[in-house]
Design goal:
about 70 residues, mainly alpha, flat
């Protein structure tokens, strides 16, 4: 496996581990829970893995031309 791909996987795993640790700390925080109820996407987008998922979703929408599948 090329070094470039290994680094990419390691970066993803590192971000996931950091986010999971951060989520465990925030899970019991009443302020965090209240913020999630008010603005779920805004509050959760503080996590790197969520930012990556949003970026991937936007990239996919751009490649499709911004249109949904028409059946």
């Amino acid at each position: 496996m090329p070094l470039k791909k290994i680094k990419k996987v390691a970066k993803v795993v590192d971000a996931a581990m950091r986010d999971s640790a951060r989520a465990r700390l925030n899970a019991t925080d009443p302020q965090f829970r209240e913020n999630v109820q008010k603005d779920r996407r805004g509050e959760l987008s503080k996590f790197k893995t969520v930012q990556h998922a949003i970026a991937d979703r936007e990239r996919i929408e751009r490649t499709r031309g911004g249109t949904k599948n028409k059946k």
